[in-house]
Design brief:
alpha/beta; nine-stranded mixed sheet; 429 residues; 25% strand; globular; FAD/NAD(P)-binding domain
């Protein structure tokens, strides 16, 4: 059910109270609605845009997320819309040399679920269709201006309506309206910018590209990612670089002239991909410092409102889906015979699992980005370390791809998290 909210309609009936009110209709908001509705709770999603949709290009879904999508009976649709790559390959952006790879066929055996790359809009569309089938109340053109709560529940206030629920979830992204209830922090600029381009595969065929792998070229102050999408019919590329204009404090930063300059010294394989990037739009890369409190009474955070990461671990959408999975687990575990949820207990369980893991993801993503972009002696050291890695060494991803992040707190994890600091390197001579 999709409802369009008409601002200022004084005759509109008061919306029925629901179990869970979700502010934001992106991947995190829809994942929460799908998971909670599958568990028998009533959900309403309030989306400020005139229609549900996502912008962008490709994203990566690691095994820690595909196992959840399989449990939700959504994996077959995801696999049909996406691509299951053979490997993740890391190369040096300057000379093109292969540094290391992750065998994703072998990784699927280890983690019990595959790795998928998919267009962002296809993942969002899959979740939207699932929400519609389940009967989630999907409200568009509804910009929430305030949230409130009392001992009995929470409210979202927008023009012409007030929505009430037992629980309100802030799933409203990097610039969340709900997050200021928990922290007065602001988004943190990395001074890096991303250009994207998803084009028909025939556009780049013959350029010696891999149609079976996710390939990442890492170089001084920049990196370049390539992989196929939509069953191999499209090819996705992402060019990321540090902006000198951003470092100098200019407001107009990340412009196409900076793109060209950033990749001028890279290998031929990177440079022949650059003409296929969209040059009329770019994405400045922000995250936020981790916070440990996501719950206040009957209001909680989820997705990028709680933990917006830099993209280096490809876990942004994944963490949002994990949030939905864990919250639903604890809501189900703390439900009485009449169907009512003890939200105090459920939210305590949710908060006992997710913030610590997501803090580690956010912090490691920052370090991983630093490692990708080193120059000079540190680049040579990095390349030596990566070349020496055994292709079947999973110590740096066990904590990420194993079930630790979504395992109910009372169960022992399959893998112990392994402390990993990629920048703890000897001084290069």
């Amino acid at each position: 059910m999709t409802t369009q909210h008409v601002p200022g309609d004084a005759q509109a009936p008061e919306p029925a109270r629901v179990d869970v009110l979700i502010v934001g209709g992106g991947i995190g908001g829809l994942a929460s609605a799908v998971a909670l509705t599958r568990a028998g709770l009533t959900c309403r999603v309030l989306e400020q845009a005139p229609a549900f949709g996502e912008v962008g290009a490709g994203l990566q879904i690691a095994p820690n997320c595909t196992r959840i999508l399989r449990e939700w009976d959504l994996f077959d649709e995801i696999a049909e819309l996406g691509v299951l790559p053979r490997s993740i390959v890391m190369r040096d952006a300057v000379d093109g040399e292969e540094l290391t790879r992750l065998d994703l066929v072998d990784a699927e055996k280890r983690y019990g679920a595959p790795y998928v790359v998919i267009h962002r809009s296809d993942l969002h569309g899959t979740l939207l269709r699932a929400a519609q089938r389940l009967g989630v109340d999907l409200v568009t053109d509804c910009a929430v201006t305030a949230v409130e709560q009392d001992d009995h529940g929470a409210r979202a206030i927008s023009a012409g309506r007030v929505d009430t629920a037992d629980l309100l979830l802030g799933a409203d992204g990097l610039h969340s309206l709900v997050r200021p209830l928990f922290s007065d922090d602001q988004p943190v600029s990395s001074a890096y910018v991303a250009y994207r381009g998803a084009v028909p595969i025939d556009t780049v065929r013959g350029n010696d590209i891999s149609l079976d792998d996710v390939v990442c070229y890492v170089g001084p102050g920049s990196h370049f990612v390539q992989y196929p999408l939509r069953g191999g019919e499209m090819f996705n590329q992402v060019a990321v670089f540090e902006s000198p204009k951003a470092l100098a404090g200019f407001e107009d930063w990340g412009t196409p002239d900076e793109l060209d300059a950033a990749f001028a010294g890279t290998c031929e394989q990177v440079r022949i991909g650059l003409p296929h990037m969209w040059r009329d739009r770019w994405w400045r890369m922000f995250d936020r410092d981790p916070i440990d409190t996501w719950v206040s009474g009957r209001i909680a955070l989820t997705g990028d409102a709680a933990h917006p990461p830099l993209q280096y671990l490809a876990q942004g959408a994944v963490m949002a889906i994990e949030d939905a999975y864990i919250l639903t687990h604890h809501a189900t575990a703390h439900r009485d015979a009449s169907g009512r949820v003890d939200w105090t207990a459920a939210l305590a369980g949710y908060e006992s699992v997710r913030p610590a893991h997501c803090r580690r993801v956010l912090s490691t993503a920052r370090k991983w980005g630093e490692l990708w972009h080193v120059a000079g002696d540190r680049r040579r050291w990095r390349n030596e370390v990566l070349r020496a890695r055994d292709v079947h060494d999973y110590s740096f991803v066990d904590w990420l791809y194993g079930p630790t992040a979504t395992q109910p707190a009372e169960l022992a994890p399959m893998f112990e998290p392994i402390p990993y600091s990629p920048l703890t390197a000897p001084t290069a001579s």
